[in-house]
Predict the structure.
Amino acid sequence: MQKAPFGPDAPRIGDFVLASTSPRRRELLAAAGYRFDVHAVEVDESQLEGENAREYVERVAKAKARNAVDDALTLGADTVVVHEGSVLGKPGTVAEATTMLKTLRGRDHRVLTGWALSRRGEIVASGVVVTEVTFRRLSNDEVDAYVATGEPMDRAGAYAIQGGAGHFVAQMGGSFSNVMGLPMETVAVALAELGIYPATSPPPI
């Protein structure tokens, strides 16, 4: 992709919108030094019949990104946990969170995040990043104690790797930030190709 121009006609550093209310995505982008606005969007996140996990998360990410604010570049993302072909989203009840964690303990699973960038409703870049995660074997008491904190209730797969579930992980292959909800290594490259850089690290002239 051709580099965007610098100077008066170049896009402002960090000029994009995050189409998500996820605190984790905001934290990741802010920690990396990006300047951005947050725009809450409502899209149907139901998985379509016959749709695999990769197709699912990228489609939802694109739907979020297409909710553009004026002419701003808009970033959308969607994250799910996949275990033995089954997609695990956010648990709706304490019982669901407990079941998810007991299903994942001592086993491998994959975390998929679809991401997309849109301008004026047109997708300009998108993709899916996969991280392989293995949980150690957890006791029932560990699961119950973690669920009681309330943290699993707003997380795909019922856990936050950067929070109380960090010590559940026995092995991980791939992007850590992807498990949090946004593959920063990949998104940073896509933003740079569109002329968007962290405010703390402007590109060399």
Q: What stands out?
A: The first strand starts at residue 16 and ends at 18. DSSP finds six helices and seven strands in the chain. The radius of gyration is 18 Å. The chain has a mean pLDDT of 89.
